[in-house]
Amino acid sequence: MIILTGYSGFIGRNFLDSLDKEDIYRVEVNGAFDFLEEYNDWDKVKLIIHMGACSSTTEKDLNKIHKYNVDFTMRLFEKAIEHGIPVKYASSASVYGNTVGRMNPLNYYAISKLQIDYWVQDNIDRFSKIQGYRFFNVYGKYEENKIKVNQSSPVTKFINDIQKNGVIKLFEDSDNMIRDFVDVSDVVNIVLNKDLPSGIYDIGTGYPMSFQEVADLVVKKYGGTIEYIPFPDHLKDKYQYYTCADVDYLGDYKFKGVNEFV
User: Fold this and answer.
1) Domains 2-138+182-203 and 143-178+208-261 share a fold
2) CB of 83 within 8 A of CB of 128?
3) Which residues pair with 226 in a beta bridge?
4) Across the chain, which distance is largest between two alpha carbons, in Å?
5) Is the Cβ–Cβ distance between 163 and 222 less than 8 Å?
6) Residue range 131-141: average pLDDT?
7) Contact 204, 153 (CB under 8 A)
8) Which of 40, 45, 46, 69 is the 20 to 30 Å CA partner of 98?
């Protein structure tokens, strides 16, 4: 049995597609704490894949973020320690903020992810095995619901905007807004199939692109135009302008490119 949290979310649904559904125990937010109290078959669990989280980077309800991203996660991980169950979990490149390789969280969500990473590092020897993965800007299949709440990756958002309206609204100075975009299929493949020691790892491509480059690719493929808009005040000082994953541990792994998805 594999426990999969966040199975109905964007990334979680992609994991669900790649696993034997008959061997999955699914946990979603509404029943998360009841699950911890009521589940009794821990001896049958061979792996926990923890993808569930309050994932909005603009969420301001600190109690909500702590409840699901920190409290639930720590309690779940204590169960894993108690029963000797390996864990693979989603962290986030947001912990880096506007630095490369150093911790500089810019919002409550990023802080919650860093709290768990620090806790895992402090308790790593208590786990049978645990791997945390700092996901960079993930795009791909099943982002439909994230589009509805304006939380999708720029790659998918730009495609959707062009197809619906013929226009991409791009922040001014987007050629200096650079992210490491990674296809969700590569994320799932690496997490499920790479045999790594306990630790916390980046998952990006190591080859970042600007928002301008992505928008240009989309317009070249679908037509349409780009409209430049001012950068919103509410994101100032809370926005990552540059991200790049350290993926040396993956050797010569061949990532899909944004151009293949567009």
Assistant:
1) no
2) no
3) 168
4) 56
5) yes
6) 97
7) no
8) 69
Is the pTM for the entire model greater than 0.90? yes
Which fold does the domain 2-138+182-203 belong to in CATH?
Answer: Rossmann fold (3.40.50)
Q: Which CATH number fits domain 143-178+208-261: 3.30.70.260, 3.90.1030.10, 3.40.50.720, 3.90.25.10?
A: 3.90.25.10
Just list the catalytic residues: 109, 146
**Cα-Cα end-to-end distance for the chain:** 36
Other CB atoms within 10 Å distance of the CB of residue 140:
21
Listed by start position, the domains of the chain span 2-138+182-203, 143-178+208-261
Q: Residue 53's CB: how many other CB atoms inside 10 A?
A: 26
CA–chain centroid gap for 113, Å, is 10
What is the C-alpha to C-alpha distance for residues 110 and 59, in angstroms, rounded to an integer? 11
Please give the DSSP secondary-structure letter assigned to residue 66.
I
Segment 178-195, tens digit of pLDDT: 999 999 999 999 999 999
Q: Which amino acid is at 7?
A: Y
Judging by DSSP bridges, how do beta strands 178-179 and 209-210 pair with one another?
A: antiparallel
Mind listing the pLDDT tens digit for each residue in 110-132? Answer: 999 999 999 999 999 999 999 99
* Segment holding 131, helix H or strand E: strand 130-135
CA torsion through residues 51, 141, 189, 251, sign: negative
